[in-house]
Amino acid sequence: MGAATGLALPEAAAGHPGPVVDLRIAGEAGGLGAEAYRLTVSADGVLIEGGDAAGVFWGAQTLRQLLGPDAFRRAPLNPGRTWQLGHVRIEDAPRFAWRGMMLDVARHFMPKEGVLRHLDLLAAHKLNVFHFHLTDDQGWRVDIRRHPELVRTGSWRPRSKWGHRASELWNDTPHGGYYTHDDIREIVAYAAERHITVVPEIEIPGHSQAAIAAYPELGNTDVTDTASLGVWDTWGINPHALAPTEDTLRFYEGVFEEVLELFPSRFVHVGGDECEKDEWKRSLRRRRRVSPNSASVTRTASSPGSSGTSTAGSPRAAAVSSAGTRSWRAGWPRAPPSPPGAATPGASPPPARATTSSCAPSSRST
Q: Which of 112, 159, 262, 303 could pair with 359 as two cysteines, CB 3.0-4.6 Å apart?
């Protein structure tokens, strides 16, 4: 706020004469819950009380709104301006704990500075979850050091479709880019300063042609010439999917290990949507892996509460155990999750970190 108003806003000593902006964490004792705040403007100045640090921060965003559009600028239009506020008392609390927005940088890469600006806009609107869609058929955007071809090959496509996929127009300019580990750490830290959690998305088993273009062995090589596939240059639902093999599982185990190191969020999104299964149906080896009893393959992911049983052993999930070490439970595709609150025989306590599917509702069942 100081950059827009031109005011230094130094820390004031106790008993400072004149109006001040007073920031306090009142907690539950002050009648405020998590992320809640109370903003009071009086002759003594501005008092923002929060149930926690996030609540104080959201209260400051409301103060900026009261000051008007000029309070969101990066430099003051009139450094000598006197800012005025009417007396008011506002008490506010979020209705939803998860208030998110998704940014798809896989199809259209956004440089780091644009991502940071996007986080500023989320903060101004009191949104606290940044869904970072990092991989898809059209591009792989996060550096995975143990698999360097993912960004060397998978982060660039030779051209892009103009408009809808039915369009006959093309932009022949190569498009691409990716984020280094340090770029990701900066984005995560910048978000945390604004009380925003970054949830990364790594798409599997569909929407993965950029990864297959980089490592053709990840695809269904017995029914498709995956070596001829490049990073996809159009839109829609792609016919190619990852091969459900042990090598593919081990490959993505390494991917998720690096992702979990970079992102401290409780959840990691694993896509799970719009996976065409024709390649699996045509491949005898894949059918036996996915459905050992020769049953037809009918789904790759199910939303909580769906009926059905696993056809490939234990559920697939990447997680960090309560002891801080990482565990991997393999099986492809993963079994439909149990309804929220349902007990699973022999199941261990929920992990501290878990993957989610786009098929799941906002409750983010694991």
A: 303
Q: Residues 229, 240: contact at Cβ < 8 Å?
A: yes
DSSP-assigned letter for residue 293: T
DSSP label at residue 219: B
At 260, list the tokens. 């979990």
What whole-number percentage of the chain has pLDDT above 70? 78
Structural contact between residues 142 and 184, judged by C-beta atoms closer than 8 angstroms: yes
Residue reference for tokens 């996030």: 54
> For residue 131, which phi and psi values (nearest 5 degrees)?
-85, 110
Q: Find the catalytic residue in 22, 70, 92, 274.
A: 274
Task: Show contacts of 284-292: CB within 8 Å, 24+ apart.
Answer: 285/222, 286/220, 286/222, 286/243, 286/244, 289/244, 289/245, 289/332, 290/244, 290/332, 290/333
> Which H or E run includes 141?
none
pLDDT above 80: residue 45: yes
Roughly what angle, to the nearest 10 degrees, separates helices 246-262 and 181-193? 50
Q: Which pTM was predicted?
A: 0.79
Smallest Cα–Cα separation from 111: which of 48, 176, 56?
176
- Contact between residue 44 and residue 50 where contact means Cβ atoms under 8 Å apart: no
Q: Environment class of residue 240 by beta-carbon count within 10 Å: exposed (0-12), middle (13-18) or buried (19+)?
A: buried
Calpha distance 45→70 (Å, rounded) = 20
Q: What is the pLDDT of residues 238-292, one digit of tens each?
A: 999 999 999 999 999 999 999 999 999 999 999 999 999 999 999 988 888 877 6
**Of 283, 276, 274, 281, nearest in space to 297 by CA:** 281
Instruction: Considering the candidates 49, 136, 137, 143, report the single residue annotated as catalytic.
Output: 136
3-class secondary-structure state, position 48: strand
For 181-196, how does the pLDDT look when each residue is reduced to its tens digit (9 = 90+)?
999 999 999 999 999 9
The answer to whether 203 is a known catalytic residue is no
The residue annotated as part of the active site, out of 133, 147, 207, 269, is 207
